[in-house]
């Protein structure tokens, strides 16, 4: 990962979020409050705008900019959680860690903030699968899709989806799906 790839990563993530805004909202309807599409779309629009205006000069500045914009613009549960991810990544990057470790630090910060474990049907499930795969250099688009799909049979134990209890079973978790878009975008940016 470097600054150019990182910027491309955020641009591609933004495109995916805007294209799939309605689907993200649809996923957040049976097990949430129908705002995940709006939350992510608003946040990522601000992120790409801020990149153009502030022109980060290195990867650390980029990660910082993403953190502050997601925190201030997204709202909901997902804003602070995504911001925590990028904050953890920013710190690990500053410490000179390699990319797999940086992503792991992102996951750890999500868990520090939201207290979700793997299997609770949240974005943590997706991040856990991705971090494990990246550490073995085995991340693929199929693996991401399978990890998103794997949230479907689970019963939600954290966040709003946990309020509907058993009725959360059979639905994909919206935050896992949007995190899937994040990592599809990462693979695409890395391949360019
Ligand atoms: P809200 O639920 O506040 O409306 P969003 O709809 O934007 O926020 O985001 C919902 C997503 O946030 C969920 O699908 C889930 O992936 C994630 N989420 C919620 N609570 C937690 C948590 N405690 N830990 C990790 N992820 C969580
Ligand atoms: Mg919601
Ligand atoms: Mg909400």
TrEMBL record:
Coiled coil: none annotated. Its EC number is 2.7.1.121. One of its GO terms (cellular component) is cytosol. It catalyses: dihydroxyacetone + phosphoenolpyruvate = dihydroxyacetone phosphate + pyruvate. The keyword Ligase does not apply. One of its GO terms (biological process) is glycerol catabolic process. GO terms for molecular function: glycerone kinase activity; phosphoenolpyruvate-glycerone phosphotransferase activity. InterPro entries: DhaK_L_YcgS, DhaL_dom, DhaL_dom_sf, Dihydroxyacetone_Kinase. Keywords: Glycerol metabolism, Kinase, Transferase. It is an enzyme of class 2 (transferase). Pathway: Polyol metabolism; glycerol degradation. The keyword Transmembrane does not apply. Residues 4-188 form the DhaL domain. Pfam families: Dak2 (PF02734). PANTHER family: TRIOKINASE/FMN CYCLASE, TRIOKINASE_FMN CYCLASE. Homodimer. The dihydroxyacetone kinase complex is composed of a homodimer of DhaM, a homodimer of DhaK and the subunit DhaL. ADP-binding subunit of the dihydroxyacetone kinase, which is responsible for the phosphoenolpyruvate (PEP)-dependent phosphorylation of dihydroxyacetone. DhaL-ADP is converted to DhaL-ATP via a phosphoryl group transfer from DhaM and transmits it to dihydroxyacetone binds to DhaK. This is phosphoenolpyruvate--glycerone phosphotransferase. It comes from Atopostipes suicloacalis DSM 15692.
């Amino acid at each position: 990962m470097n600054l150019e790839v990182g910027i491309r990563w955020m641009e591609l993530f933004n495109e995916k979020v805007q294209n799939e805004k309605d689907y993200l909202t649809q996923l957040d309807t049976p097990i949430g409050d129908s705002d995940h599409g709006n939350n992510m779309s608003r946040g990522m629009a601000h992120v790409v705008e801020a990149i153009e205006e502030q022109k980060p000069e290195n990867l650390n500045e980029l990660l910082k900019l993403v953190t502050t914009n997601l925190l201030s613009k997204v709202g909901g549960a997902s804003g602070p959680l995504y911001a925590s991810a990028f904050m953890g990544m920013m710190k690990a990057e500053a410490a000179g860690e390699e990319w797999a470790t940086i992503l792991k630090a992102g996951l750890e910060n999500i868990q520090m903030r939201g207290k979700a474990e793997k299997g609770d049907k949240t974005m943590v499930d997706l991040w856990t699968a991705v971090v494990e795969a990246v550490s073995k250099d085995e991340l693929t688009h199929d693996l991401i899709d399978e990890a998103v799909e794997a949230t479907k049979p689970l019963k939600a134990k954290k966040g709003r989806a946990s309020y509907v209890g058993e009725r959360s079973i059979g639905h994909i978790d919206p935050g896992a799906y949007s995190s899937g878009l994040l990592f599809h975008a990462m693979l695409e940016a890395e391949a360019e």
